[in-house]
């Protein structure tokens, strides 16, 4: 029963190893999936950066820079004309610088209108959106990298679980082997029947192949040091027999040899064929 229990434990440990190995396979597939997610995140980040660069290129188009320079030049010319107008004293100088100021103001207005028209032609909010998209994709990329690290740690943990389960199988296998060894030794030992004392085998109750039940006697053994002889004595002679009396016995089976014994007790036996009574005398040899 103990061996069967240990074998069941061994099979359970082997099933546990199989389960843990499947978990490792599942975790490895998760790592592969996370790696694909990371690759997709890298592609998305690259595309977002390209889109941002294109939007920035549109925003920094040379026409914008030229328009900005014209506005700056018009402002400088207007400031210069105003300073000279303030300094002018003669009517002719005042008139001349007044005309220049008016021309500078007109040029500045045209330059500013041109710059505003260029800005209005392109959506500057698109650049901000593209920047946010880059940041978002960058965050997803970092999340994917962390997911891979977590998945790889899960694989390592699952592999350690497999190793632990394999050690459990080895321990269970050793327990089964030890139990089998002990059982074999017990079976070999149980095949040896040792008599409780020296004596003579009088009868063998079971033979090879017979079914033996618990507490059934297998061999009838006689202790030759404590033999008992039963002798029938007639009622005429029993009066001279009493317990403790010494006796000498001659047996036909042992010619020329006299056995010595002692009377232990006597039992009356009535004959079934006549009215006579005989006595069975038991002697210890």
From TrEMBL:
SUPFAM superfamilies: HlyD-like secretion proteins
Residues in coiled coil: 3-58, 134-189
Keyword Coiled coil: yes
Pfam families: Beta-barrel_RND_2 (PF25954)
Alphabetized UniProt keyword annotations: Coiled coil
A GO CC term assigned to this protein in UniProt: cell envelope
UniProt domain CusB-like beta-barrel: residue ranges: 232-279
Main location (coarse class): other
Localization terms from the record: Cell envelope
PANTHER family documented for this protein: EFFLUX SYSTEM COMPONENT YKNX-RELATED
Entry protein name: CusB-like beta-barrel domain-containing protein
Protein's organism: marine sediment metagenome
């Amino acid at each position: 029963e103990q061996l069967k229990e240990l074998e069941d434990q061994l099979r359970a440990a082997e099933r546990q190893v199989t389960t843990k190995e499947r978990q490792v396979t599942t975790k490895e597939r998760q790592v592969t999936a996370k790696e694909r997610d990371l690759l997709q995140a890298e592609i998305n980040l690259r595309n977002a950066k390209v889109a941002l660069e294109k939007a920035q290129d549109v925003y920094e188009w040379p026409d914008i820079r030229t328009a900005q320079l014209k506005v700056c030049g018009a402002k400088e010319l207007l400031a210069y004309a105003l300073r000279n107008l303030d300094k002018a004293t003669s009517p002719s100088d005042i008139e001349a610088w007044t005309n220049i100021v008016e021309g500078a103001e007109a040029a500045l207005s045209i330059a500013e209108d041109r710059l505003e028209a260029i800005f209005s032609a392109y959506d500057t909010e698109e650049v901000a959106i593209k920047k946010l998209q880059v940041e978002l994709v960058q965050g997803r990329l970092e999340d994917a990298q962390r997911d891979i690290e977590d998945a790889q740690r899960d694989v390592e943990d699952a592999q350690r679980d497999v190793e632990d389960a394999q050690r459990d199988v080895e321990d269970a296998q050793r327990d089964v082997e030890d139990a089998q060894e002990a059982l074999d030794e017990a079976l070999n030992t149980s095949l040896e029947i040792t008599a409780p004392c020296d004596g003579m085998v009088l009868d063998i109750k079971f033979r090879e192949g017979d079914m033996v039940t618990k507490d059934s006697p297998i061999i009838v053994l006689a202790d030759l040091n404590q033999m008992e002889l039963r002798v029938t004595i007639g009622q005429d002679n029993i009066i001279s027999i009493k317990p403790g009396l010494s006796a000498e016995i001659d047996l036909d089976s042992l010619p020329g040899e006299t056995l010595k014994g002692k009377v232990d007790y006597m039992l009356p036996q009535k004959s079934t064929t006549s009215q006579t009574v005989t006595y069975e005398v038991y002697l210890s040899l």
